[in-house]
C-alpha cells in the first residue's frame, strides 16, 4: 500500500508542476490578462497559489498515509479539473489573446491528469477501507 501512496503523491506533484508551468508570461501561457480587474486578478492568483500549496501538503499527507490524505487529494483533483475546464470553455479568465495550440494541448493533458488523479486516489480509498 505504501508504494501506491508514493505513486499518488507523485501524481499530485506532477499535477502541481503542470499547473506552475502555466504561469502568465511563462513559456506556455502568453495570453494578455491586463483587462482583469485587480480584485479579480489577485483573487484568482491567490486561489491558484493556495491550490499549489495545498497540493504540496497533500503530497506529504499521502506519503505519511494520513487519514485525510485521500479526501484532500480528491478535492484538489476536482479543483484542478474545474480550473482547466472553465479555461478551456472560455468562461474564465477572459483574454483578448487567443489560447495557443500548445497551451490548449497542455490544458487538455492537465484536465486528463486531474481526472486520473481523482480516480486513482478514489480507488486507493476504496481498497484501503
Descriptors:
mainly alpha; single chain; 4 helices; 129 residues
Describe the structure.
The chain has 129 residues and is mainly α. The chain has one domain. The protein is 72% helix and 0% strand. It has four helices and no strands. α1 (2-20) runs antiparallel to α2 and α2 (38-63) runs antiparallel to α3 (69-88). The protein is elongated. InterPro entries: DUF8051. Keywords: Membrane, Transmembrane, Transmembrane helix. Residues 9-122 form the DUF8051 domain.
Helix proportion of residues, in percent?
over 70%
Count of β-strands: 0
Beta fraction: under 5%
Quaternary structure state of the chains depicted: single chain
Q: Rg from C-alpha positions?
A: 16 Å
Pfam families: DUF8051
Organism: Paenibacillus rhizoplanae
Keywords: Membrane, Transmembrane, Transmembrane helix
Transmembrane segments: 6-27, 39-63, 69-92, 104-127
Helices and strands in order, then pairings?
Layout: H1 2-20, H2 38-63, H3 69-88, H4 101-128
Question: Nutshell version of this structure?
Answer:
InterPro entries: DUF8051. It is elongated and about 45 Å long.
